[in-house]
Each structure stands twice: as structure tokens, then as C-alpha cells.
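@channel sequence for tomorrow's demo:
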Amino acid sequence: MSAILERVKPYLRINVILFAGLLAFLTPQVFANTPEGAAPHAAVTFLEIALILVFAKVFSIVERWKQPAVLGELLVGVILGNLALVGIHWFDAYKVDPNLKFLAELGVAILLFRTGLESNVSEMRRVGFRAFLIALAGVVITFSLGAFVIGPWLLPSLGAAAHYFLGAALTATSVGISARVFTDLGKIKTPEAKLVVGAAVIDDVIGLVVLAVVTGLVTTGAISFGVVSLTLGKAIIFLVGAIVLGQIFAPRLSKIFSRIHAGAGTKFTLVISFCLLFGSLAEQFGLAPIIGAFAAGLVLDPIHFTSFKNARIAEELKTELEKEESGLKHKILRIVHAHEERHIDDLVEPLSHFLVPIFFVLTGMNVDVSSLFNPKVLLLAGALTAIAFIGKYCSSFFAGPGINKMVIGFGMIPRGEVQLIFAAIGKELGVVSPEVFSAIVIVVIASTIFSPILLGYALREPRAA
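C-alpha cells (generated this afternoon):
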């Protein structure tokens, strides 16, 4: 059988390439029928999704070199998003398609929700203080280096407000990228993963406070203590309230819905609804929806769903094993029980396979590599990338003993959509110039490409105190 598979592998590769090529050929044909400025037809979005998923899977070949799949998704996004530089504009519309943007946002919410499911409140409580120290140290170091060192040194003609925005844009960690790397490598339950994810969530909250301070300074000329207090207060109220209320209502809602129908469909509906509801509430509180999605996964626990039916294979195995008396029976039952415990994540996983690659491919597509040809931008980007890496890596020194600090340091490096949002706000306010914006984008490129490589390497190294 293995010999047959080896023979057909080359043909399988050729067929995959031909299929992707066919989709790419169809893209301009379909878009030709879409009026300029009009919302994409369903057929157009279907083709976009198909092409993104196929190319993402083709580029998952990076896993053969022991790299996480997210790296391949980011790389294919960067390639497709910059084909216009060689005269190919087939994929330009992908960047502005509101349907794809929505699916990408939903994808990163599902990713953070699954990350929360892999943790629980008691575990987060154990790492909470250390995660706070890691987040605070990373924010303070990167902001200080950006606002008070790189800004005045390389951009002396810009005012202090621009320097502050530059520092603020460097503070946020893209928790989605690190979470995906941990998940791809099967390390999401390690102490290091819990610290990185917890610190990244706290990092986002602190980053929002920093953004509120800097924005207030730009718009009013002074820092408003009221705005800062309100932002921080809402963040704390939401996170604490979500965890407390979620743990109170989750088991009660579960029992009510299980009486309506105890099947997997009802269980899936309740789980996803929790994720979306918490994400929506987070945005109402002025926080990123991904923080709400993570909180939803954090409060849901398998014990809340004991009144629902388990997976069919688990029930069938337990029924058959009841007839057995061997020692093997207890080993198999332990395996079955472990799968019952993660049945919630098993239900969500297929949805994650569909949506999460869309987010990472689109993230890569929105990176403009043409800015790499400007020497001034490259110098600024190189300096910003250095402090972005160094600042976050230094935060690992606050992780405490018994932790692989290399994993913490590299896990906190990725920048992504949050950093781009910060930079876009500064650009709209007129304090972030196009050159500075391009430099910040290059930092995102460097961190999203190199941090998964570095983190993957660190995760395979022996743990160091």
C-alpha cells in the first residue's frame, strides 16, 4: 500500500496545482461580471473562499519542515496580496470584500474561543499575576523605546504626539498568531502557552488604555484622566463580570437547552452562541471582540454539558466495554473519557478549519511589500522591528522560575491586526505619516513571519528555567 501511495504522490501534487490554477483562472472571469463599486455576488465570495482555502492548504507544506501551518497561510497571503506589483490584479478585490472581512473576524474569534476552551478559570487564576507582569513589562518597555528613543532619534521633525503613537502601535501582541502556533504544535495546554495567552489578553487591555491616553493627547492636547479611568474600568468590569456571570449561567442554560434537545446540534448551538454573545458584549464595552470570545471559552467547562449526549462513538465504545473485564477495558475507558471532556472543542474544530485560514491569509494579503523599496522606511522599520522583538522578549524575565523563557519571549513577539488598527487611527488623526505607517506594516510582516519560526524552534527545545 505504501508503495502505491509513493507512486501516486507526484500525480496528487500535480492535480492540486492544476486545481488551484483553475480557481485562479476563474477569478478574473467572475469579477469581470461584477459592476465596479457593487457588493460582491455570492458566487464571487464562494470562489474567493475556495481559492483562499486551497492555497492555504497547499502552503501547509511548511509543516514538512516542522513549521506551523499559520506560517504558510501568512506567506500565501503576502504573495497573493502583492501580485499587483507584477501586473496581476486578480486578488485586489479580496482585500476590500466585506464578506471575507467578516469571515476573517469570525475566524479569529473562533480561534480565541478554542484557546479559552483549552484553559479554565482556575488555571488562568494561577498564572494571572505572572501574566499581568509579563504584559505590563512588554507594554512599558516597547512603548518607552518607541516613544522616547526611536521616535526622537529617527523622526526628530515629528512632534511628541507622533512619537507617542509610534510607541503605542508597538505595544499590542497578536494573540491569534501565537495561539495558532501553540495549537498547531499541540502545546496549547503547556504552562508557557497559558502564560502567553493570558499575558496577550491583558496586553490588549493595557494597549487600549495606552491608545486612549495617546488619542486624548492628540485630540485635546492633554491627557484626560476620565477617559483613561473609564477605559480601564470598563475592561475590568467586563472581564470579571463575564467570568462570574458565565460560570453562574452556563450550567443553568445548559440544563434548559438539554431538555429541549440533548443532541450535538443543540450543544454546538449553545457553545457558539456563548462565543458570539461574549464577543458582542466585549465590543459594547469598548474592547476587542476576541477578548470576549476568549472569556467565553474560559468560562465554559465540560461539566456544564454533562446533561447532553456524548459523541456516538464514545457511547458505543462504553456500551461494548461494559461486557469486558480485562485491564484493557479501563485503559480504553480513560481514553474515551478524555475525548468526552474535549467534545466541545471537537464540535467547534471543523468550523475553525474553515474560518481561521481565511483570517491569516487576509492578514498576509493586506501587507504591502512595495514599501520595502524605500531606504528611509527600511531604516525606521529595522529599528522598530528590533525594539519590537527586544521589548517583548525582555518581558519573559518576569515569567518566574520553571518556565521556558524563550517560549514566553518569542510567544509575545507577534504583531498583527491590533497594531495595524493603532497605526490606522494615528494616520486618520494626521500624526502618523505614510512613511511611518509603512514602517509599522513592515514590523507586522517581520513579526508575523519570523515569530512563528522562532516560537516553533523554542517549543522543540528543552525547557529552561
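heads up for whoever presents: The chain has two domains: 15-102, 109-459.
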